[in-house]
Amino acid sequence: MTALLITVDTELSSSLYQRGIGLEDNVRRSIWAEAQGRACGIGWQMDLLDRYGLKGVFFLDPLPALVHGAAFLQPIVGAIVGRGHEVQMHIHTEWLAAAQESPVGGRQGRNIGDFTLDDQIILLGLAKALLEEAGAPPITAFRAGNFGANDDTLRALAAIGVTWDSSVNPAYLGQECGIAMDAAQIGAIRRLGVIELPVSGIADRPGGFRPAQICAMSAAEMTAGLRHAAQEGHDAFVVVTHSFEMLSRDRMRPNGAVIARFEQLCRQAARLPQVHGAGFNDLPQDLADRPARLLSRAAPSRLRTGLRMAEQAWATWRYEHRLVPA
């Protein structure tokens, strides 16, 4: 069977903080995604996952604790763990610019991969400790904010005892993501002491790659990718979304198009007998020790790509234009 990992990058907004938005409002808008009397963040996501018998992996960024204190993490961790979903580690090093006390001597960078190996060990060890002290079970997996990891990130994860990494998004390789990986490798592979499980996706054009992110793929593309993975016997299909992704970019209104895509993914997954919901703690570590192969991607479809582009244009007009009531 194909393990479906629905991963949610769960994070406060440093840009909202820079605009003077307080902690409570940032949590409300970024984690619970509340807008216009509706919540469509991690609580709503867990409701939907539970309804369809699926499991979520919530990559939670604890670095805002350097600015706001660690207490805000406890109710978030408690809500996720209490419902049987996974808390794993995420990190956005932008928060170091506002930290009252820097754990790395005041050094700053947009991405974890901008730091030396020694600094990465310090930062990742701190993030792991903050999550576990907030009530998370032992952290076993990581994803870098902005997919901005490098090979030293994998070495640092191995040094602090984290088994899995999912910072490779083939669409970001050679850009934000500096991990030395073949962009065609979308199966688990052992590298530098950890197991790398990249973000999944489809070929949206010859030679192209569209990552399996809720806001980046249409429902038809996501369904095609998931069905292809199941039919080809892929070990895992890794989907990405964010805690706030069901809102408009200004986080002022729900985005019905993205909400519908998440719902469709859950429905389709529940209908596929070859697919089961999973977290990293459910995966066998020998995934990375099986015969190496480059996993095939769903064949490109001009029709699917064209329909997605039209859908994106309509959704941008409908949900991002401030003058259109939601």
Produce a short descriptive summary.
The protein has 326 residues and is an alpha/beta fold. The chain has one domain (2-320): Glycoside hydrolase/deacetylase (TIM Barrel, Alpha-Beta Barrel).
How does this model look, in words?
- The chain has 326 residues and is of the alpha/beta class.
- It has a single domain (2-320), classed as Glycoside hydrolase/deacetylase (TIM Barrel).
- 34% of the residues lie in helices and 15% in strands.
- The protein contains 10 helices and 13 strands.
- It has helices spanning 14-18, 23-30, 42-51, 65-68, 73-82, 117-133, 151-160, 219-231, 256-271, 302-320; strands at 2-10, 34-35, 38-39, 56-60, 86-91, 141-144, 164-165, 189-191, 194-196, 201-202, 210-211, 236-242, 275-277.
- Strands 1, 4, 5, 6, 7, 8, 9, 12 and 13 form a 9-stranded mixed β-sheet that branches.
- A hairpin with a 2-residue loop joins strand 8 (189-191) and strand 9.
- Helix 6 (117-133) crosses helix 7 and helix 8 (219-231) packs parallel to helix 9 (256-271).
- The longest helix is centred in the C-terminal third of the chain and has 19 residues, at 302-320.
- The chain starts with a strand and ends in a 6-residue tail after the last helix.
